Amino acid sequence: MSGPERVTLAMTGASGAQYGLRLLDCLIQEEREVHFLISKAAQLVIATETDVTLPGKPQAMQAFLSEYTGAAPGQIRVYGKEDWMASPASGSGAPSAMVVVPCSTGTLSAIATGACNNLIERAADVVIKERRQLVLVPREAPYSSIHLENMLKLSNLGAVILPASPGFYHQPQTVDDLVDFVVARILNVLNIPQDMLPRWGEHHVVSEE
Ligand SMILES: Cc1cc2nc3c(=O)[nH]c(=O)nc-3n(C[C@H](O)[C@H](O)[C@H](O)COP(=O)(O)O)c2cc1C
After folding, report:
1. What's the 137 CA to ligand 1 centre distance in angstroms?
2. How close is the Cα of 140 to the center of ligand 1, in Å?
3. Tens of pLDDT along 63-117?
4. Residue 79 has what pLDDT?
5. What single-letter DSSP state applies at residue 167?
6. pLDDT in tens, 11-59
């Protein structure tokens, strides 16, 4: 199996809930174990941007997401925002990769300063201190110097800043195509197989000239 077997997926309150839900779906199809964290604001954004209504309590949310994605029993674990006993809260138990998608500028800032005021911030802090893989998918427009400085700081610490900005060179026809573009990029960074988007040059026909 290429890429991490266990991934922490955190959804925060930036626009782009579809990216997080689609990534969850792909990770489950690729038979990864997903440790799922979600902020209160993300739940509001999901309700605003999609047809999905997530139950509020972690256990009910876990059952809902398992059915929604067709996950095997135990494949998705949902933790509350102050569940400090959860595996992502400690270097000895945390998955080796974490993706925050979408990543709000608020959570970006908290991660950049090591705030650790909730499990999402703590889990990211653990991934940074353990020098594991952290992928952040921010969305805001325009970005202020505060946002950009936070991104630079985190990039210098080894995090991958992967903005939610789909390309158009694959001629997307639907919103799902745009979502898949970003999700495919995340999977490429994690080295998890995806067939939504060919890698650049993969279908390149060598010119005869
Ligand atoms: C519908 C909706 C869309 C939002 N879009 C964004 C956004 O694109 N980027 C962002 O950084 N914050 C956005 N926000 C604001 C964040 O949700 C807010 O700053 C919140 O405190 C983030 O908290 P969290 O980081 O704990 O999720 C949005 C809020 C709502 C309700």
Report:
1. 13
2. 9
3. 999 999 999 999 999 999 999 999 999 999 999 999 999 999 999 999 999 999 9
4. 98
5. -
6. 999 999 999 999 999 999 999 999 999 999 999 999 999 999 999 999 9
Mean pLDDT of 115-124: 98
Nearest residue (CA) to ligand 1, atom 25: 107
- Structure tokens belonging to residue 73: 């029993």
For the chain, how far is it from start to end, CA to CA, in angstroms?
A: 40
The tokens of 6 are what?
Answer: 């266990």
Q: Which amino acid is at 130?
A: E
- Tokens 């009910």 sit on residue: 60
Pocket of ligand 1 (CB under 6 A): 12-15, 39, 41-42, 44-45, 48, 104-107, 139-140
Question: Which atom of ligand 1 is closest in space to residue 44's alpha carbon?
Answer: 31
Q: Which residues contact 75 (CB under 8 A, 6 or more apart)?
A: 28, 31, 32, 33, 34, 66
Q: How many CB atoms lie within 10 A of CB 105?
A: 19
